[in-house]
Amino acid sequence: MSDYNHVQPGTTVRWILLGMLLFFALFATTLWATGVEDAAGMLLPCVPLLLLFPLFHSLGVHVTRDEIRLRFGIGLIRKRIPLEDVRETALVENHWWNGWGIKKIRHGWLYNVSGFQAVELRTMRGRVYRIGSDEPRALKAAVDARLEAKPGERA
Prior knowledge:
3 helices, single chain, 30% helix, 9 strands, five-stranded mixed sheet, PH-domain like, 2 domains, alpha+beta
């Protein structure tokens, strides 16, 4: 049984960060053009935005024989979910107000960079994780196949 490995581009996150960068850059340029001395200070919010881009530009999901690995952007932010802890999976649709990124939502934790489709994982301990995906059916099928395999057959 082969591993599932997919990287979803963070289209939504990219556009939001780009829009905010453009806003601050244009605002600083406008202030500078009108003679405001502290216009360069308006570029300071661009620094954290530029740092966020490599961290959240994509979401990689890798289902191995033992775990589900999540990797945001360049890989500094990661999450591992042991398959032995997963009780059930479901295809779900996230509400727009849940947004994107990593966050605590009403029923658990959300890991998402774009879109509203996700696979929900319920663990033996009652924890809930929602993994956003642009191919949720394939992700769910990969997790379900690993869950159905006996522990010795997961190799």
